[in-house]
Amino acid sequence: MKWWILSGAFGWLIRILTMGAEPVTISMEVALRLADAKNLSIELARERVREARSQLDQDRRQLFPWVAPGVGYRRHDGHLQDIVGDVFDASKQSGTAALTLQAQVDLGDSLYKLLATKQSVLAGQASESVQRRETALAVALAYTELSRATAAVSATEEAKGVSARLVAQVAEAVSAGLAFSGEVQRAQVQHERNESQRLRALEARRVASGRLAQLLRLPPGDELRPDLSEFVPVNLVSTNQALETLVSSALRLRPELRRTQALAGAAKAKRDGVAKGPWIPTLGAQAAFGGLAGGRNGDFRNADDFQDYGLGLSWRVGPGGIGDRSRIQVADARLRIALLEQEKTRENVVREVVELKTRADTAAGQLTVAERMLQSATRLLELTQGRKEFGVGAILEAIESERDWAQAQAEHLRAIADYNRIQWEFWQATGQEQGLGLPSVITQDGRTH
User: Fold this and answer.
1) Helix, coil or strand: residue 387
2) CA distance readout (Å), 179 to 149, 226, 427
3) Cα gap 258→266, rounded to integer Å
4) CA dist 337 → 52, 109, 214, 359, 368 (Å)
5) Domains within the chain, CATH numbers bracketed
6) For the segment 16-74, what is each residue's pLDDT rounded down to a tens digit?
7) How many degrees, rounded to 5, is the angle at CA 348 between CA 345 and CA 350?
């Protein structure tokens, strides 16, 4: 992890702690970097990579000999049998000081185990990438929902202001004898309906803030506020590309596929270790250098140096070695499982890209419709507000136009949120990576975040 990621994220944390209970504005970029720096799942994935690398170092060290320095003392009193079989009394002692260099290497098992561990390291690195992208997606979706809820609060407050002005205008018309007194109550009902929507929007904003705070490992009591200038349609993946190009990109870039490929490679190395490894002999070697002194009874004489050497090759036949078909069958089954998982992941990636390409195109169309609907509703509201009549029909028309405008605003906000959510899911599905593995957010007006 680069130092500037941590410095930026923790600098923002310090600002939170110094601001107390006041709502804190947070941008998408800060949220993504903070999640990358603090997420427990990402840290767990990093630790697993470190574990796999340490295991690889340990497996490599098993190929090297070790040194065993030592001293020894030995004494015998009483009967002793010589080499021809005669038994006699003897009292003797000896002492040694030696440095022994030893190696006991199961070459076949060690070599294939080393290959399998290398693949495990690659699988761990791919898993870390998977976790980072999944965390980025979860944070981006939570931030998008918080943005929608916050924008909805502003929209409902604006709608409440419009309905309040209508209530005041109708009340003035009733006082002037231009409108029926019951129309005030009709306008008041719409005003209270807008207030109810505002309260729901406030609740949704608080819930969304808490969910984002949980993902960022911030105190749930901290109220987060998004940068609403970012709540515009964003383009993370160009949907103008051919479907075949998007699928090819996903199959090349998705870390899930790299992980399954590495796991299949590890399974193959283990299978080869079981099938081929036993034919490679176990090597045993020893070299000892030291001094020996001793003699009869309590004498220590004839002290001088000595050297011992030994070398051996051995094979294991039977269970756990050559001819153990059950081990090979188990390894074959595990390799087939890994290959099937790889193919299953590949098919899931293709399906996700196809589905999200369709959903992205649909979301773009729905966003266009929502924008046109909001423009028409806004124009209708302006026209009805400009009327000076306060008859029953005119008031009903004003209330209806205000209701349509509020619904159009909500639909527009929902369309933006849906479009952005699908863009983030599309980014995840196609496996595109830039920089830290987090995307550059390009809005439809050309700005980059």
Assistant:
1) coil
2) 37, 44, 56
3) 12
4) 22, 22, 36, 32, 46
5) 3-443 (1.20.1600.10)
6) 444 445 788 899 989 998 888 877 888 888 888 898 888 888 888 877 777 778 888 78
7) 110
Instruction: Tell me the C-alpha distance between 96 and 76, whole Å.
Output: 15
Strand partners, 71: 97
Identity of residue 414: R
The half-sphere exposure of 112 on its side-chain side, counting CA atoms within 13 A, is: 19
63 neighbors 105 (Cβ within 8 angstroms):
yes
Tokens of 279: 């034919």
Residue the block writes with tokens 């964003």: 234
Measured between alpha carbons, how far is 396 from 228 in angstroms, rounded to an integer? 34
The tokens of 431 are what? 């496996």
Q: Which residues of 39-53 are buried (b: 16+ CB within 10 A; e: fewer)?
A: beebeebbebbeebb
Distance CA(324)–CA(124), nearest Å, equals 31
- Residues 18, 10 contacting (CB under 8 angstroms): no
**The two three-digit tokens of residue 26, written as one number:** 């947070």
Strand arrangement of the beta sheet that strand 87-106 belongs to: 66-81, 87-106, 282-296, 301-314
pLDDT digits (tens, 9 = 90+) for 341-374: 999 999 999 999 999 999 999 999 999 999 999 9
Instruction: Name every residue whose Cβ is closer than 8 Å to that of residue 327 and which is 6 or more positions away in sequence.
Output: 274, 320
DSSP-based three-state secondary structure for 356: helix
pLDDT, one tens digit per residue, over 79-121 is 888 888 888 888 888 878 888 887 777 787 888 888 898 999 9
